[in-house]
Amino acid sequence: MSFCIAIDGPAAAGKGTISKAVAAHFGFAHLDTGLLYRATGAKTFEGLTPIEAAQSLTAEDLKRDDLRSGDAGQAASRVAAVPEVRAALVDFQQAFARREGGAVLDGRDIGTVICPDAEVKLYVTASDEVRAKRRHKELVEKGEEITLEEVLADLRERDERDAARATAPLKPAEDATVIDTSDMSIDEAVAQVLALIGDRR
Ligand code: C5P
């Protein structure tokens, strides 16, 4: 049995945490598709073109230590605007989405492009300020020296680029349920999502 849960939304809206909790709850596999773009972006630091980087992506590349850095996030959103980069990553994501036993994929275009027939589509969002605070806390805990203002500017720049690109832009699928987590704790957001999915299974 395959069952795909698509979770899209802007950076630091809570997609990752919600996806992990949902996958654990249902015993589904989870793919953070942002990692594919981060790893592709990181490979361009070593001189590969974005297309070469995407076409030669391996499981090892997804284990690099620097994928969560602000630089890797910016590089990811730049390579993610290249249509050939996106095309190189489609088959892997679609096979993952239709694996036996169920899958949760989170990203920007899962409900719109990768899995348009997903059984559940969510668009998780939050205000810019709340998202910046969450990401800032995460980065500081990892030892990055960065101000809240820098994080906010970085998120806005990335979201604008992601929403403005011609191929697979960031936007809710027409049939997605939008969840705004600005005024929710992560536990509340997870509970709301589990209740919603429970109704559809
Ligand atoms: O989700 P995360 O912040 O790790 O994603 C990094 C970047 O990868 C995003 O800013 C976006 O440009 C790109 N991305 C994408 N499509 C996805 C997932 C991520 O374009 N499905």
- Supply the number of structural domains: 1
Name the CATH architecture.
3-Layer(aba) Sandwich
Mean pLDDT, nearest integer?
95
Order of strands, main sheet, comes to 2-3-1-4-5
> Roughly what percent helix?
40-55%
What summary fits the major beta sheet?
5 strands, parallel
Q: How much β-strand is present in the residues? A: 5-15%
Rg over CA atoms, rounded to whole Å, is 16 Å
User: What are the low-pLDDT stretches, counting only 5+ consecutive residues below 50?
Assistant: none
Order of helices and strands: EHEHHHHEHEHHEH
End-to-end C-alpha gap: 12 Å
Q: Examine the coordinates and then state which fold CATH places here, giving the name of the CATH topology.
A: Rossmann fold
Bound molecules: cytidine-5'-monophosphate
User: What structural class do the secondary elements suggest?
Assistant: alpha/beta
| The CATH fourth-level homologous superfamily | P-loop containing nucleotide triphosphate hydrolases
Question: Given this structure, which CATH class is correct?
Answer: Alpha Beta
Number of helices: 9
Oligomer: single chain
Give the tags.
51% helix; Cytidylate_kinase_dom; alpha/beta; 201 residues; 5 strands; binds cytidine-5'-monophosphate; Rossmann fold; ATP binding; five-stranded parallel sheet; 9 helices; Cytidylate_kin
Describe the fold and architecture:
The protein is built from nine helices and five strands. By secondary structure, it is α/β, with parallel strands linked by helices. The chain has one domain (4-198): 3-Layer(aba) Sandwich (Rossmann fold), CATH 3.40.50. A five-stranded parallel β-sheet has the order 2-3-1-4-5, with helices on both faces. The longest helix is centred in the last third of the chain and has 17 residues, at 148-164. The two termini are 12 Å apart. The model has no long low-confidence stretch (mean pLDDT 95). The site of cytidine-5'-monophosphate has 14 residues, from helix 2, helix 4 and helix 8.
